[in-house]
Write the structure tokens for this entry.
Amino acid sequence: MSLTQLLRKRVGLVQALIVRQPVRSLTGICGIAVACLLMFVQLGFRDGLFNQSVRVHEALRADLVVINRDSTSLATMRPFARQRLGTIYGDHDVSDISLVRVRPLRWRTELTSRSRNILALGVDPNDPPLSLTSTTTQLNSIRGLFNVLFDSNSRREFGPIAKLVNQGKSVTSEVNGYRLSVTGLVSIGPSFAYDGYLVASRATVEALINDGSQGDAEIGLITLKPNADVENVLSRLLKYLPHDVNILTKQGYVNFERNYWRKGSSIGFVFNFGAILGLMVGAVMIYQVLYTDVSDHLSEYATLRAMGYSMPYLYSIVICQGILLALLGFLPALLLGEVAYIGIRRGTNIAVTMSQPIATSVFLLSFVASFLSALLVTRRLWSADPADIF
């Protein structure tokens, strides 16, 4: 018998085992589908929030970023004296330097009865360091004191602020005893720490915080001249900048934020652990289905042994059955995952998407779980002794 014929015979036998017990097979398929769906949700939330946490970082218009060395993330930025940037102005490769104030605030509007956390970004409207809005009219509107741009992707608990602004209606909020007017919108979205953002002039943000840090900055943005080597300039500036500040490339600052949430907090562990639990659910379901199936067909496996089929051949039948069940469970989970992501996006404004890395990871994890479960079940085949059966 050729190898092709042997494979066809094996696949046909596996299909017959699955079709013959439809309820049991459907239980295994549903079990692996639920497990894959859990993994899709956990990994989707994780990657969506990780990407959301660096939305501001990726929008920075700069080649190098200066921050306080004690800052760990955008949610916990520490101010530094802008005099720290004085030595940078004299570097021959530096074209421009801009500052950003970053401060958490409590936002309350007449639309809702509760206040919520919001992160304020103070910028220079004449030289905006963030590519979050392209309309000059919106930037001009925040030149006035206590005028702000509201994040249209903030959580719904803030109320229909974006809808009212788009309709040309007036929206105000009370923050630290001051009344703010929403004059436009930006698009950022909620993160791990904050439900939304607002963008205002540095003067507005400093008036709101009023904590003695006026004149300082949380983020310093350095723009280099064309053709300047970013890595060489970074190495040079590190030599004479004070040790209480840190300087990074823009991508380095993005990685700095993402690594904090991945490794420096429990968020990454929680989502990864949730995915592992989903994997364990699928593995247990596959194991139970295969174990019951092998036990019910023990006499048939003993007959195959008596006919001269080897134990590795019998092992391959069980393993192929587990892999096929995993494949049949993954496909509906992929469709349900897309539906779940749509619901998550609408309910939370978190940009979760079915990316290729997520789909590949879930498929490989389900494949490995099914393979290992089937491998454990093959131990039951040692009970298929022809001498005991006949």
Residues 3-53+267-389 form one domain. Residues 108 and 115 are 4 Å apart (CA to CA). Residues 311-348 form the longest helix (38 residues). The chain has a mean pLDDT of 82.
